[in-house]
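DUF4142 domain-containing protein: C-alpha cells wanted.
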Amino acid sequence: MRKRPVAAAVAAVALCGTAAPHAFAQRPAGQDETFLIQVHQGNLAEIAAGQDAGRHATSKCVKQVGAVLVRDHTKLDADVKTLADKLKVRLPASPSAEQKKQLAAVQAKAGTSAYDAAWLRTQEAGHRQTLALIDQEIKAGKNSQVVAAARSARPVVAMHLDMVRGGTCHMAGHTGMVGAGTSGEPATVEADTAAVGTAGLAGGGLLAAGGATWLLMRRRSTRTQ
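Answer:
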C-alpha cells in the first residue's frame, strides 16, 4: 500500500519533465525577440514613410508605391503584434530614433522632385536592411512560429524592394499582384487593401500566397516580353 504514493509521485515528476521542455521551447529566444522588435519598428517606419509619400511625393508612381507600403506593412505589423502578444514580447510604440531621423531628412525635400529620389533611396536601403533581418531570423531563429512568420513575410518585403530598386520607381510592373478586380482588370491599391484587410494571416498562409501570386505575375510578365 505504501508503494502507490511513491509511484504516483514518480509519474507526476515524469509528466512535468516531458511538459516543461515543450513549454520552454515556445518562448522566444534572444534572436527571436530582437527580430520581432526590430521588424515591428521597421513596419511602423514604412507605414509612416508610405503615408508621407501620399502627401508629399510629386510623381504618381511614388504615391502608389507608398500606398502599397502602407497596405502591406499594416497587415504585416498586425500579425507581428499578434505573435508578440502570444509570446509575451513587449514591442516599442514608435520607430527607432534613426528611422525617425531618416524620414525627417526626406520630409525636408517635400514638394520637390528631390523628395521622390530621396524617398526611393531611403526605401531601398530600409527594405534591404529588413531582408537581412528576415534572413538572419530564418537562419538563426529558435522559435518555430517566429521563423515561420519571417519566411512568410520575405516575399512581400522582396517585392517592395523590387519596386524601389536602384532608387527608381517600378510600380507599373507590379500592378494587381495581391489580387484582381471583379472586372478582370488588375485590382487597385484600394481594392487590394480591402481584400487583405478581410483575411487573417493564420500562420503566414496569406503572405505566402501573396508571394506565390507575385512570382506568377513575374513569370507571366517575362513571357510577354
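The radius of gyration is 22 Å. The chain has a mean pLDDT of 76.

Cheers.
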